[in-house]
Specification:
InterPro entries: D-isomer_2_OHA_DH_cat_dom (IPR006139), D-isomer_DH_CS (IPR029753), D-isomer_DH_NAD-bd (IPR006140), D-LDH-like (IPR058205), NAD(P)-bd_dom_sf (IPR036291). GO terms for molecular function: D-lactate dehydrogenase (NAD+) activity; NAD binding. Keywords: NAD, Oxidoreductase. This is D-2-hydroxyacid dehydrogenase. Belongs to the D-isomer specific 2-hydroxyacid dehydrogenase family. This protein is α/β, with parallel strands linked by helices. The protein has 13 helices and 13 strands. α4 crosses α6. The longest helix is centred in the C-terminal third of the chain and has 21 residues.
Length: about 325
């Protein structure tokens, strides 16, 4: 069995070495991400562990060359696999796996931290630390606001339950009933009610055809003018151009965005959306780091390697999204 791990950081390389010693399998690491420039390196390997660039959405030749080089499996080292074209992968008989669960506490705690920072207007407080008058920066307490959770999967549910324990009134939207949450006193509502009733709204859904630009000019316009919006999911769930127009008009008392549209093709700081948003004092922008803790990185690396090992050795994995 020959495994190849792309875009391996120093931290990941240590974890890969640990996994290799435990399983008796050699894993070759490459520091760079997988692209046409280095795809020849995949020749002779059975499986790849990598995070796909946006080119994998539309470029069938990437899949063709991987199959020709002997690759049988693509182990995606993330939960989201929206950059993978499943039709191309199926055509070239490439099994695809993902990492559906990893330290949900990492993103949940980051989300709650962001909410508290914006309720207390901390970004502006820090920028004006020596200002004598702070009357305009008076904060709100979590117990005085209604928090809406869009998406009540494992992560969204954890955020919702934690905020409930902390004293917030919590509403949530999910496609199916969530009796375990309502039994705790949380309220399941329609998407329309979530938009209009939430003082704080936090997004926790994958990116797909249904969620793409779910928060657009129409739906964003229905939110309270002084609402706080948090996104630690996928950038394209929000129509960012529409969001920027609203912020320029004075809508929203705060934003915390850990994901932006086009961040994987344009980088983060060179992204025009980033450049526009960073000018506003009530906006927190972070480069997709909500998950980034030692526990989460360990879970991701170990699960991605386990997925590759399972598929190549047995033909199956608990985390197959395409076989």
């Amino acid at each position: 069995m020959k495994l190849l791990f792309f875009n391996a950081s120093i931290i990941e390389q240590r974890l890969i070495a640990e996994w290799s010693a435990t399983h008796g399998v050699s894993v070759k690491t490459v520091a760079a991400p997988l692209s046409h420039d280095n795809i020849a390196l995949t020749h002779g390997y059975d499986a790849l562990i990598f995070y796909p660039s946006r080119a994998f959405q539309t470029d069938a030749t990437l899949y063709q060359q991987l199959a020709q080089n002997g690759i049988k499996q693509l182990s995606i080292k993330s939960t989201g696999y929206d950059n993978i074209n499943l039709m191309y992968a199926q055509h070239y008989q490439l099994t695809v796996t993902n990492v559906p669960n990893y330290s949900p506490e990492s993103v949940a705690h980051f989300t709650i931290m962001s909410i508290l920072m914006l309720l207390r207007q901390l970004p502006e407080q820090l920028r004006t630390a020596h200002t004598v008058s702070r009357q305009h920066l008076i904060g709100k307490e979590l117990t005085d606001v209604t928090v809406g959770i869009y998406g009540a999967g494992r992560l969204g549910s954890l955020v919702a339950k934690t905020l409930h324990v902390m004293g917030a009134r919590v509403l949530f939207y999910a496609r199916t009933p969530k009796p375990a949450l309502t039994a705790l006193g949380l309220t399941q509502v329609s998407f329309e009610t979530l938009l209009t009733a939430s003082d704080v709204l936090s997004i926790h859904v994958p990116l797909n055809e249904t969620t793409y630009h779910r928060f657009n000019a129409v739906t964003l316009g229905k939110m309270k003018d002084d609402a706080i919006l948090i996104n630690t999911a996928r950038g394209s769930v929000i129509d960012t151009a529409a969001l920027i127009r609203y912020v320029r008009q004075g809508k929203f008392s705060g934003l915390a965005l850990d994901a932006l549209e086009n961040e994987d093709t344009q980088g983060f700081q060179t992204n025009p959306y980033y450049q526009a948003l960073q000018a506003f004092e009530n906006v927190i922008l972070t480069p997709h780091i909500a998950y980034y803790t030692s526990a989460a990185v360990r879970d991701i690396v170990m699960t991605a390697l386990d997925n590759a090992y399972d598929v190549i050795s047995t033909g199956i994995s608990d985390n197959v999204v395409l076989n």
